[in-house]
Amino acid sequence: MRVTIIGTGYVGLVTGACLAELGNEVFCLDLDQSKVDILNNGGIPIHEPGLHDVVTRNRAAGRLTFSTDIAASVAHGEVQFIAVGTPPDEDGSADLQYVLAAARNIGKHMNGFKVIVDKSTVPVGTADRVKDAICAELDARKSVAGFSVVSNPEFLKEGAAVEDFMRPDRIVIGCDETEDGERARRTMRALYAPFNRNHERTFWMDVRSAEFTKYAANAMLATRISFMNEMANLADRVGADIEAVRHGIGSDPRIGYSFLYAGCGYGGSCFPKDVQALERTARDNDQQLLILHAVEAVNNRQKHVLGEKIFARFGNDLRGRHFAVWGLAFKPNTDDMREAPSRVLLRQLIERGASAAVYDPVAMKEAERAINLDFADDPEARARIRFCTSQNDAVQDADALAIVTEWKTFRSPDFERLKSRLKTPVIFDGRNLFEPEVMALAGFEYHGIGRSVRTRT
């Protein structure tokens, strides 16, 4: 099948590469010439495990093309995926300018029936706005080309996106109950047929329900994280161990273990903006989502918890203090720094006069760009952050180590070497990588999240 992908970010690039891997002829459009040049020269503009190999293999086979040519992209695909960014607007709503621009471009150039697929995470009712934008362009051209707008939200985890696409637990597709909608349903069924051979993974529904499903799913996951973070903060107060609690409640099949890990808050491009966008949708419909308002408030508060533990131990005035930070990306296996808790921690430390040595296995380039922006108005403060080439380099002569991202490489360090490099053997573990009892026996002062239980005798 001939498929066009509009946008080569996380969602668009993974979707295009994986559909090409299944034998489709995929044309990926992006208006950023520098990004297209990177892709055409064999590079990948994002870090996503396994993606480079899939892109390289399918470019070589001639099934995957990258271009800035809008007219060629519309002419190519019978299916047009819109996979552009929907960043949060100032009021928390999703900014649809790129989605609607893509729709207008399709309307300007299409000459035959097209299935228009909203792959971007968009508010309920966006398909109607996409349809109106395309119709306006067709009317201006006096064209009668047919089309149908479909909602097919993505459920890809950064760091495991290729695996998630190729082995989906569900495929959600919303179609209209019209003749064109039925034609689109047949097309989408054929496109996703390879995933349904063993058992049916597709959930068919109306367009608005499909749009809503994506937001509801992310809101539920964010809620679980914030719930456990609140429980962890209380566990610290009452002397309980949140890891023991997690095992105790996760064993209940009605609850399960997923997304029950306490930590220093969630970040990334999805949960923060999707929770805000869903709250905005509720306000626009005269409803308050009290739980989601609390979820967001808890998460914003949780990003400060690690810093507050450091202040409790070393005092509010950190002038002359030096800290090591392991992990900068918002999660492992990605270089994404959007809404990363590390940025909040660094701001807390630097504003109180400390210096910091930081390290991330993958995100150093993107982290430096993001942190330079964070401190653009204060070059002196920015100068107190040093980007290191290794995790061992980062901890040299530090007063303490703070762990912000749970990369595997941080899980089993040489503790004796680590202790010898630190000025004081103090660890603030924002992801609960280690056991408090083990750390005590190794001679470390250990501060986790919700793990205040002392060594048992």
Average pLDDT works out at 96
| Low-pLDDT windows of residues | none
Which fold name corresponds to the CATH topology of the largest domain?
Answer: Rossmann fold
For the record, the CATH class of the largest domain is Alpha Beta
Under the CATH scheme, the architecture of the largest domain is 3-Layer(aba) Sandwich
Domain count: 2
**Quick one: how many beta strands?**
14
- Shape estimate: elongated
Task: Classify the helix fraction into a percent range.
Answer: 40-55%
Strand content: 5-15%
Characterize the biggest β-sheet.
6 strands, parallel
Per DSSP, the total helix count is 19
- Fourth CATH level, the homologous superfamily of the largest domain: NAD(P)-binding Rossmann-like Domain
* Main structural class: alpha/beta
Rounded to the nearest angstrom, the distance between the terminal CA atoms is 66 Å
The value of Rg in angstroms is: 24 Å
Descriptive keywords:
elongated; 457 residues; Rossmann fold; 2 domains; alpha/beta; 19 helices
